[in-house]
Design a protein that fits this description.
Elements (H helix, E strand, L loop, with lengths): L1 H6 L3 E11 L5 H11 L3 E6 L5 E8 H10 L8 E11 L7 E4 L4 H62 L1
Parallel strand pairs: 2-5
Antiparallel strand pairs: 1-3, 1-4, 2-3
Length: 166
């Protein structure tokens, strides 16, 4: 036990609460990867109020780097606020994990099914537009062929008339 405490004398714990569009966006998976890349131990979990909680232990520099990396803004994820506090490390963690609550897989499947449905609708509209464009192109192609044939027939007729006049 004393040896374990001695190991964590220079280690700290970061507890951060992240709010914004951070649930059902893949945010925890990103945090998991980042924390593991820094060699940190702890966890990331969704809270019932829509925020995400991160508890990480490691060297101060790595924790500060993680804290900076938690502020993700992209098409899907939008961190609005991060509240954080540092405390002494306890050495309670063996690795960095994502805490998964009951029913979460079902929720993700529901969200995935909804997104897939939207994607199918968009693809059907695109397919309809492509079909309409193909029909227009086919009609235009037929009109051009008709016009070319008429022009060719007119030229051939003129040539024949010129030949008979000679």
């Amino acid at each position: 036990l004393n040896k374990k405490r001695a190991t964590y004398v220079f280690m700290q714990r970061l507890t951060a609460y992240i709010s914004g569009k951070v649930q059902k966006t893949g945010y925890r998976a990103r945090v998991l990867t980042i924390a593991r890349d820094f060699g940190l131990k702890g966890y990331v979990q969704n809270l019932d109020d829509g925020r995400v909680k991160v508890v990480a232990e490691g060297e101060t520099g790595d924790l500060e780097s993680l804290l900076g990396a938690l502020d993700i803004k992209n098409t899907i994820i939008n961190v609005v606020d991060i509240k954080s506090v540092y405390s002494s490390a306890t050495g309670d963690f063996d690795s960095f994990v994502k805490v998964v609550s009951g029913g979460e897989t079902d929720q993700r499947l529901d969200v995935a099914a909804e997104l897939l449905t939207k994607l199918i609708v968009v693809n059907e509209k695109i397919l309809d537009e492509i079909k309409a464009t193909c029909k227009e192109l086919t009609d235009t192609h037929e009109d051009l062929n008709e016009s070319i044939n008429e022009s060719r027939d007119a030229v051939v007729s003129e040539i024949r008339e010129l030949r008979t006049d000679l």
